[in-house]
Design brief:
342 residues; paralog of FGE (formylglycine-generating enzyme); 17% strand
């Protein structure tokens, strides 16, 4: 069975559609012109998961639900459940000295989910800023409210630190948004009705399907085990800055997720720390969130595999870290639920 068929079959179980090849061809983002105004605004602002979420208390008509499903199908890829093996560094004490033990691999079960095909762009994030996302407390945890308005751009307006006057550079609208901290990434994800992926989910997206069995079944890159510099925007690709999120399609995953490797590191919904053995305790000066995938200025390809893990302080706003969002398949209304509500 071909990979597009596998993906299509899995997606069809959620949508109730018969075709197994729904995702094998490009789908246009729906115009939503025939959708009621409130739903149209949500869908056009890429907030369609607020329409589709089974946790939403609002009811939507069948036209809105169908349009939102088409928007999700356009923007997101289905990743089936499975097991990943997370690389874990362990700090041990030997002869009164500390050393980093050879990495171990911990199996983790991942449930089915949908992942953004692209990193969030400057244009995407601008909609959040213009909608007052920084001033709306519902998208920010309580501990951040005292200083959330200090997340400002070069001119003192709220927004990513690479922007000016609350606006992204006009020539970088289709580039991944950078200069945002972990809290800002999470706030945007809540606004669109999604969340950041966990480290296990991110790795699952980049390493399935396994082409062979055994301990080494996971591939190192979305396209295979050999690094190919033309497939990812890393230092060796020759770039010195970000590129549009839809570039370098040769490096896509089989189900159409772009640039998991390279262009920008990606914030994840997982705290980063090292494990320890015995009585060893690790105390970090700052809380770190995990980032994955490497960036345009990552020199070593070994740091841009699907298994490599590192972290950034949650308040850092780096020039080379962006993010993409996801949603669990179980958090979406099924087609049966939709028909019952209509």
């Amino acid at each position: 069975m071909h990979i597009p068929t596998i993906v299509g079959d899995a997606f069809a179980k959620w949508t109730g559609r018969q075709s197994a090849n729904d995702l094998s061809t490009a789908v246009q983002f729906p115009d939503a012109v025939d959708v009621p105004l409130d739903s149209r605004r949500l869908i056009r602002n890429r907030r369609y998961c607020n329409v589709l979420s089974k946790h939403c208390e609002l009811e939507f008509d069948s036209v809105s639900l169908e349009c939102a499903r088409k928007a999700l199908e356009h923007d997101m890829a289905y990743v089936p459940q499975g097991i990943v093996r997370l690389m874990q560094d362990v700090v041990v004490e030997e002869d009164r000295r500390y050393r980093l033990k050879q990495s171990t691999f911990v199996p983790v079960q991942v449930e089915s989910f949908f992942l953004d095909r692209d990193c969030v762009t400057n244009a995407d994030y601008a909609r959040f800023v213009q909608a007052g996302g920084y001033e709306d407390h519902q998208y920010w945890p309580q501990e951040t409210l005292a200083w959330v308005l200090q997340f400002v751009d070069r001119t003192g307006h709220v927004g990513p630190n690479m922007w000016s006057h609350g606006q992204p550079p006009a020539d970088l609208l289709d580039h991944p948004v950078v200069g945002i901290c972990w809290y800002e990434a999470n706030a945007y994800a809540r606004w669109v009705g999604k969340r950041l992926p966990t480290t296990a989910e991110w790795q699952r997206a980049g390493t399935w399907p396994h082409m062979r069995t055994g301990a080494a079944a996971e591939q190192r890159f979305p396209w295979g085990n050999a690094f190919v510099r033309s497939k990812a925007n890393l230092w060796k690709h020759g770039g010195c800055a970000t590129i549009p999120v839809d570039a370098l399609n040769d490096g896509n995953t089989p189900n159409g997720v772009r640039q998991l490797i390279g262009n920008v590191w990606e914030w994840l919904d997982s705290r980063f720390d090292s494990a320890s053995e015995g009585d060893v305790k690790i105390i970090l000066e700052e809380v770190l969130a995990e980032v994955r995938g490497g960036a345009f200025d990552t020199y070593f390809a070994s740091q841009a595999t699907c298994q490599f893990r590192t972290g950034q302080p949650v308040l850092n706003r780096p020039h080379n870290v962006g993010f993409r969002c996801c949603i669990s398949a179980t958090d979406l209304r099924s087609s049966t639920e939709n028909s019952e509500n209509n």
